[in-house]
Design goal:
Blueprint lengths: L1 H10 L3 H23 L2 H17 L10 H20 L27 H10 L2 H12 L4 H8 L3 H21 L7
């Protein structure tokens, strides 16, 4: 209830309420930005831009999800937009015609640490890394990932499948094994 009251105060441009929301969410949203950007300065810039956008668009927040989930989507979109502006143009592959196999097995051997998996995810190509991070780390489903990345559902599933295959190969190369 506290959160909804603060959000309503923010809709009235109450600076104290904005500061309260900022303090409540800044550390968590900084971690989200860092997972994508890997640079403290860039993450801080994206975080500030995200909060500015959130406060400018707070009237669009309807309360159908938590404020944190709503803000997290803004941070992820801003992080991806930031990365897009930094990279060179890449020719896009139309993945919609490709056959898709379903593979929901994400198990790895028990001796592999979370840090080893995170390091391997960081080594994935950009087109697969975002989808894998959003699916595994952020807990987004295919529809949400498709919306955020502005790709089709089949492209999302294909990228996730390929990212998973790359991830398993990276772990195998490092001698960790993957259990399959």
């Amino acid at each position: 209830m506290f959160q909804l009251d603060v959000v309503e105060q923010c809709k009235s441009n109450d600076r104290k309420a904005q500061l309260a929301l900022y303090k409540q969410y800044c550390d968590g949203m900084f971690c989200v930005a860092m997972r994508f950007l890997k640079n403290t300065d860039d993450a801080e810039d994206v975080l500030q831009e995200s909060f500015i956008k959130a406060f400018q668009k707070i009237h669009q927040f309807k309360g159908d999800v938590t404020f944190g989930a709503w803000l997290k989507r803004i941070v992820i979109n801003k992080s991806i937009d930031f990365l897009k502006t930094k990279r060179q143009k890449i020719i896009q592959l139309d993945e919609s015609y490709m056959h898709l196999e379903v593979d929901d097995d994400w198990t790895i051997e028990e001796h592999i640490s979370l840090e080893e998996v995170k390091d391997a995810i960081d080594q994935l190509s950009e087109r697969y890394r975002y989808v894998v991070m959003m699916f595994l780390v952020e807990g987004f489903d295919h529809d949400e990932i498709s919306q955020v990345l502005n790709i089709t559902g089949s492209a999302c599933r294909t990228r996730l499948l390929r990212g998973k295959a790359q991830l398993k190969e990276l772990l195998k190369e490092k001698g960790y094994g993957t259990g399959s």
